[in-house]
Design a protein that fits this description.
Blueprint lengths: L1 H30 L3 H41 L3 H18 L2
Length: about 100
Amino acid sequence: MIQLLAIVALVALLSYLTTIWLAEVAARAVCRINYRRLCLLVLAALLAMTLAFTGPLGVLIFFLSTVVGLISPLLGIRKTHAMGVLMLPLIIYYLQLL
């Protein structure tokens, strides 16, 4: 039993030290990320998935929802109101199917 507890303590210590080391490595890697390039890559991936799954109409809706999301802070409108604008038509649509 003592040998088992010693092994558990050793593994816990090694995992702690490994976690600290990996956190430092990850912190250095995150500091080197070009966030503009990352954002453009994510946007391109979202656009490609939208086009692949929903076609041109989906891309139009994607564009319009992006405009609504970006313009609301400029006009001083809370984003919860934008969610209401998007959710209300969906609720009405799905209630008609019942």
